[in-house]
Amino acid sequence: MSAPRDRIPVAVLGATxxxxxxxxxxxxxxPWFDLVEVAASERSAxxxxxxxxxxxGEGNAPESIASRMVLACDPAAVSAPIVFSALDxxxxxxxxxxxxxxxxxxxxxxxxxxxxxxxxxxxxxxxxTHLDLIEVQRKNRGWKGAIVTNGNCSTIVAVLALAPLHxxxxxxxxxxxxxxxxxxxxxxxxxxxxxLGNVVPFIREEEExxxxxxxxxxxxxxxxxxxxxxxxxxxxxxxxxxxxxHTICISAEFETQPSPEDAIAALGAWRGAEDARTLPSSxxxxxxxxxxxxxxxxxxxxxxxxxxxxxxxxxxxxxxxGLKMVAMGHNVVRGAAGAALxxxxxxxxxxxxxxx
Amino acid sequence: MSAPRDRIPVAVLGATxxxxxxxxxxxxxxPWFDLVEVAASERSAxxxxxxxxxxxGEGNAPESIASRMVLACDPAAVSAPIVFSALDxxxxxxxxxxxxxxxxxxxxxxxxxxxxxxxxxxxxxxxxTHLDLIEVQRKNRGWKGAIVTNGNCSTIVAVLALAPLHxxxxxxxxxxxxxxxxxxxxxxxxxxxxxLGNVVPFIREEEExxxxxxxxxxxxxxxxxxxxxxxxxxxxxxxxxxxxxHTICISAEFETQPSPEDAIAALGAWRGAEDARTLPSSxxxxxxxxxxxxxxxxxxxxxxxxxxxxxxxxxxxxxxxGLKMVAMGHNVVRGAAGAALxxxxxxxxxxxxxxx
Amino acid sequence: MSAPRDRIPVAVLGATxxxxxxxxxxxxxxPWFDLVEVAASERSAxxxxxxxxxxxGEGNAPESIASRMVLACDPAAVSAPIVFSALDxxxxxxxxxxxxxxxxxxxxxxxxxxxxxxxxxxxxxxxxTHLDLIEVQRKNRGWKGAIVTNGNCSTIVAVLALAPLHxxxxxxxxxxxxxxxxxxxxxxxxxxxxxLGNVVPFIREEEExxxxxxxxxxxxxxxxxxxxxxxxxxxxxxxxxxxxxHTICISAEFETQPSPEDAIAALGAWRGAEDARTLPSSxxxxxxxxxxxxxxxxxxxxxxxxxxxxxxxxxxxxxxxGLKMVAMGHNVVRGAAGAALxxxxxxxxxxxxxxx
Amino acid sequence: MSAPRDRIPVAVLGATxxxxxxxxxxxxxxPWFDLVEVAASERSAxxxxxxxxxxxGEGNAPESIASRMVLACDPAAVSAPIVFSALDxxxxxxxxxxxxxxxxxxxxxxxxxxxxxxxxxxxxxxxxTHLDLIEVQRKNRGWKGAIVTNGNCSTIVAVLALAPLHxxxxxxxxxxxxxxxxxxxxxxxxxxxxxLGNVVPFIREEEExxxxxxxxxxxxxxxxxxxxxxxxxxxxxxxxxxxxxHTICISAEFETQPSPEDAIAALGAWRGAEDARTLPSSxxxxxxxxxxxxxxxxxxxxxxxxxxxxxxxxxxxxxxxGLKMVAMGHNVVRGAAGAALxxxxxxxxxxxxxxx
Lengths: 356, 356, 356, 356
Fold this sequence. Notes:
The structure is a homotetramer. By secondary structure, the first copy, chain A, is α/β, with parallel strands linked by helices. Chain A has two domains: 8-152 and 337-349, 3-Layer(aba) Sandwich (Rossmann fold); 153-330, Dihydrodipicolinate Reductase, domain 2 (2-Layer Sandwich), CATH 3.30.360. Chain A has helices at residues 18-27, 49-52, 63-66, 89-101, 133-141, 153-169, 192-195, 206-217, 260-269, 298-301, 333-349; strands at 8-13, 33-40, 71-72, 82-85, 105-108, 146-149, 171-180, 199-200, 220-222, 225-227, 232-240, 246-254, 287-289, 310-318, 322-329. The radius of gyration of chain A is 19 Å and the shape is globular. Chains in contact: A-B, A-C, A-D, B-C, B-D, C-D.
């Protein structure tokens, strides 16, 4: 594992949206990657970034990006060998394939390819070896490049909280109820009239994603295919009036049942896969355990580990499944742009991008 | 069953707090009850109600109450034969016993006596026969009056959504995750700095109440004692930035498993116990089923049935337990003051207050 | 002045939007008007209302409307003699003219014609006589019908609070700062990411509307033209995280300076123009004065007078201009649909719609 | 001006409250000051800080403070020569005097001494010379120590936005309307039921403070006394559902009227008093001008300059007073703890603490 000799030029596709903006923020002063191009939909292409994008985070778009021309999402227009995709699913399917076909590494946050059997769905600290699926993908599709995906935001937060326990105790059954931040729906996203002082107990396709993606991420790669983990999952997904930070209530049953103390010890000791521990964006602790009775909370914990850590609290006995707890993570950083960034760093560190 | 000939004088104990104010609002122009006295803590006693209470709902305290003198919470100071108790649990224990000893009917929202084996814990539409425990209570304690309680706010909402199904299919195991409104914590209650844009995944004692009270309410009275229902329960309780309306995500396993269609039919057809259908405050439908994919929602459904109905939606298959759904109800009306009021109306209708 | 013998058929244009929905709610069981048609943009026309509109208020669209087919906004498709217009300004200009040309009364909440010199801009209780401009309008334009408008939502609230004082003391200079609810921007309107826990100190064109419309409404009609009132106005407009209810801080200088006590007396005694006092939707008190030190508040006062009253509080000395106070009113009811409805009722009561 | 040779030991009085916590955060790793003691009310004294204080910001109290014993607010218990006071006004009067009498420098955020004629009320960048009042104070009161105060949070924000203009154009009359964050009321402070989805148009004493303190801060010190600036002020103060960041709408009239362009240039060029430019906590720009039409906003601008900068936007013509604009600043940092910290740094830099 090693750092690249020179900073690698990268681009962001879908750069004007909420996740695209998070990519831009996280790529500021990145030691390995140099953000040289921003691309977006036809509506934005050809404009200066500052005119095309309404910056929704704190402060303003970095000056170096603000003055840049927005390119079309087309491998003919974008030259960087690595592209981060924050594209909407309505266009990601074709665009990402075009980039992979053109020999680029597409590190995507879009849902389109996540469940394809030859596409890695990776949380860097959890299942880095799944990246080997790239070989299969290239063979199957005749691509010189590749597509690597990360999971849906709530799934990543849940999987990080569960991986340390699954590794030791094997998950059997899982109930999760999410309380998800509005930024998960992008911008403009959730109308204020729908969520001010309200809860919306429905997020389209979210429960399905949690139920399928978690099993793939915690599955095992062998002979060029991932066997999904076999645990059962049931999810309830809710939108709440929070800006950033998905809170997830978890009740879990394991093959070997850990006590709450066992679980706290396992969570606290976990550092994730060796490969992922020293990446530029790796948090010291991918999972942080809190013993405070009323934590984690979005407002107080969302930026733990620079937004890359998941905070787990209220680890306690569950009357039915043995163990319950609450996990919370930054949906835009840990659950989207930051997850993709870690995946790209991992690809570089493992030498999988050599030759680009 | 019959209406009283004359309006019965009633009092509210703890009249200055959030639930006390709800009693006052619901007792305005009540056909059977005449609110003649308001009582509160020593700090308030002796002041005009308008000076003692900060009115937290819409508009202002009714003029007839605003000008009234606040009394001490003492049977020597309060003369009404029926007292609604919105007392804080720190004082409810002694005060309510004193009133019962003095021959009054105490219809209480406080938690102190709920789990006492000789005290009825009643949702009018669900387990009205439990009121017969009053006889046992009087014998045990030598009281001429009695204490009747209703459940904790989130428990009542959950129990109403589950009773129609439990009656037909027998509950076996139950996961509930709540998203609870700030009014459930009273006034001043939750500091704004704790909840604006936030979720707090902890409410003291709430999970325990949900787990114990639900089994008592759905239990069976025979031979002067309630045998708790035997289903297993696991609860996760969260506070969210909602003013009124607790949302509850439910996954339920039954002895005989209903399909979602069966469940919808059972919920839609349910009218609750015969006795409770024609009380002055009875909603036409104690449970309302919505087929909208993103309902119920506090902002849109909290006042269904005047706040007395629980709205149930998203009734669907659960991969683990067979059935999942979302219930939402007004925590201050259906879950507190309105529940107590229905209990009092039921006592009158069943003739149990004759002789007062 | 008299009620119509039979209910008059009316239509709502732009019926699927936020103000359109408010018209539908307010027209439920209206004694004079019978809502027989709903019309909206091409995207919605031809669908059932329940499929075309996302109902954003409490509960659901009235069943009688939900099942109705949405018509095109075209006098050929809509037959009612009175149409309430909640159209977006991008289409209101042409559509409203087409209806007026076709002989219909257009009672409009759109901004397009408000400042036209031959179009009445009316708050029923304040300047009902401006309706006489209709004659001029018809002559000028050769229309058989007419367009009558109400002001912008924040302007109406401010004007109602000021009219009782202007009538007696003559406004000279006026500072207003608004804190406006998100519903004023319609649906989907303000994205939640822009307003949760935030203030946006800008609402496009709002300050200009406040400055121009207030002078026209408080102007004097003579010889077929309105002379605008001559006071100076400066406005600051802000969006805040409130669902309904615009709060307006006012500092006002008058020709004859009233003391706070004078102002309170004048505001409290005011009932508005005689003509407007007994309309079906007239509140008993168009302006309500509160003496509570921390009122009016949207959450507690927005539904005063069924949403048709403006609540004024904190009437006190202003160090620079003599008088300051806070006004608050329901922007969707008093400031939009309810204002138009009162205008329509006034037209009927004054016999101006005879012959329709 | 010079840095101290060794870090100076300092204490925080009222360390468990909201402003006390902000002092602790800002004093972490401070180059000049070493936080060695935390003191609070009797209720907290004698406990570990972590048990006495509910940490309300992000993350947790710094470990070095969390484990420290809380002292009583008494010069006999606290030894540091400089004490930052975040005391409640109910106790600040006596406690601060006791510390000053005992020879300590009290740098206070409390309101008690602000308007005393011999107590400096200072914004470091605006009126640093007012610190010379200390000599008068010591003579008058026979103290070896001294009390230095900063203004009320909204006043500081307004004064910073106005100082650059007042210096050049002389303020004549001023209207300000504030939209203030809940953190300004401390913790627990504003109950959530009062502010969720609401505006409260009243903050006790706030308008008075804005009107009096702003004139003192912009006043001139000569012959040992401050002559208040003579401009007229009228303020409207409102509480809104924002966590941090007071927004202030300003209409201002000057002796010499600047155009908006003049004002923007003056604001943009301003760096504050020479003395205050190179303090450890000085922001590069005490005032930042934004040209975005809808800024400043709390959510996007509150942390500008680490929370020490005030952001001014919407600088435009005012129809009545010539100039209007919107200022926004972090009420806890710029408006409270950070303002006091700058004052302490200034005292050190000017050598006024030599001999301590």
